[in-house]
Every structure is written in C-alpha cells, then in structure tokens.
Amino acid sequence: MGITAAMKVLHQDRFKGEIKMQVEVPDDLWHLYNILTPGDLVFASTYRREEAKSDKIRAERGEKKRMTLGIRLEKVEFGEFDNRLRLLGVIEEGPQDVGSHHTLIMEEGEVLSVVKQQWRPSQLDRVRRAVEDSKKPSVLFIALDDDEATVAAMRQFGVKRLADISSGGHGKMYATKEEGDYYGEVIAKAKQAHSPGVPIMVLGPGFAKETLLAKGKEREPEMFSKAFLYHTGQSGMNGIQELMKRGMGAEVLKDSRVAEETELVEKLLEQVGTDGLATYGPREVREAVNAGAVEQLLILDSMVRERDVEALMRSVEEARGRVTVVSEMHEGGKKLEALGGMAALLRYRMSS
Predict the structure, then answer these.
(1) How many CB atoms lie within 10 A of CB 8?
(2) Is 72 helix (H, G, I), strand (E, B) or coil?
(3) How many domains does the chain have?
(4) What is the pTM of this model?
(5) Beta-carbon neighbour count of residue 318 at 10 Å?
(6) N or C end: fewer C-beta atoms under 10 angstroms in the chain?
C-alpha cells in the first residue's frame, strides 16, 4: 500500500512491438493481467532445471538455474491473494528446452518484455494508466459503530477488507468496560496496514467514529493528523460503498480508478432508469456498436478475455468511442455484472 513508485516502462520498441516493464506494486499485476493475451511472446528471467547430459541419465536431476526464456503465452492466471501472476506457455526462445511448457511467475520487482504483433489502443492505455495509477495514494478506510469495525484498503482493482474487529459488547451498556480495548485494537490493526502519506477515512453512524478519531490523534498523532471523518448510515463494507457512491471524500478519492468506474456505472444506471441514452446486455450493446452509436462502452474485466469482446472494443475505439474496463471487485462492477457484464452510454437514441 502507501504511495509507491509506478510500474516502470523501461524500454519501448514500436517497430518490434515490444514493451519492457518492471512490476513495482501488486496493482501492476492486475494491469498486466489485462494487458497480456494468448499469443504474446513474453521474455523474463526464470528458474529451470539444467538439461541432463546424456551420459548421466541416471544421475540426479539437474539443478535449477536462472535463465531468460521467451514463452509464447497460452494462459494467464491472476492470484488475487498471493500477489502473483502465472504466465503459462511454450518456450520459444532461450538456452534450452525450446518447445517445452514453462510457467513464468510474475511478482513485485520482476522485469518482463512483452512482444505483440499489434498493441490495441486499450492495451497501450492500460500501460500508461499503470504508470500513472501507482503514483496515486491508496486510501485506508476505518468503518465502525459501537459494536464492530472494519479496516479496508483501496487498491486499483477494488476495495479490500483487511480486518474485522468486534467490541465484544452489545451497544452502549458495555461501552465503558470494553471501550479502551476495542478502539485500541482498531487503531493497532489500522496501523499495521498504514504507510506514511496514505489518507485515512473514518466513517460510520453514531459517535464511535468521533471517539476513534480522538483516540487515534492521541495515540498515533502522525497517522491520524490528516484523517477525514464522514457520517454514513451503515458501518462495515456497506458504509464504505455508501461513501464512495455518494461521492463524498472526493478530495481523496477523485483520482482513484475505483471512483471513476463507480461514477460511470452510476451515470449509466441513471440513464437506464430514465430511459435515456444508454443500453445494456450483450445483444443490445452489440447492436449499438454496429450502428456506431456508442459513446462509452463499459465492460466487465472478466469478459475482456472473450475473443469477440475484443473485436467489439476495437470497433468502439475505431468509431472514436471510449472503452472502460470495469473491475468486478467493487460495487460498480457488481452492478454492471447484474446488467449482463456490458453496457453503453449512447450518442443518440436507438430506435427500438
């Protein structure tokens, strides 16, 4: 978390269609997941067993050695919980085992070169965004009431719940007995997740949030000196979603990708609700794209890998429309999923 260095683009060769990048933060893996497609040639440093010499067939298996291999990508797997990207494919270039299968593991600090026959505008945009995104601060949320608190962090690919803390009591009756432990525990959990310069947003119904902020300023003045306080109808993850939807916290959230995607989905729902310039569902969206009527295409990230969807995105871009890939890991994404995973804001009304 924290304010981190951006994904670095180390080298770009337009002629060869090659971009060399360094993964700096977990969010970069999410961007890479959306940039890489089967058929790409990917070079990275990796470990592979040395080839056994023919005269030592019976000897122990060769030691693993570090080497650079180029694999023709067949599949990409994103591990949300272990912050790794697995790139599966066949070795096409390297000192040994050409034609064999190999898995490249991408994690923070790794460098890779990606060669594509053709970089789509949306992919180049994604590279540019990865470089810009990670310069922006992450946000730490503490959403609480008298009974329980949730500590969560904003990542580029959504809001992630980090801890739930229960007060152990029920309501006001126990406040005096349990209060110190409860707030102390919440502050301790938040401190584990916090990095210097990251804004903290304390939110929830009732007065628990004011108490927490006062105790936070007392015990961890540096961490809580610039905390923002917000009243929400609910605590927990629901309170955080409520805050983001309401657009409060604009000064903190305005530059974040999650806020941008949530805002677009809300704008779309507004148009759908008033029978305005919007359409949703795979069939309806395709018709609008074919008619050149799409101003802004919203598509769920899990659908991007479907072959015909890429063609659809390209058509929108060629007609000077915009494409936004929405993460399924936050509230806006869930709402888009309920509309069939794709929707569009239109230039003009389609005749039904």
Answers:
(1) 16
(2) strand
(3) 3
(4) 0.57
(5) 10
(6) C
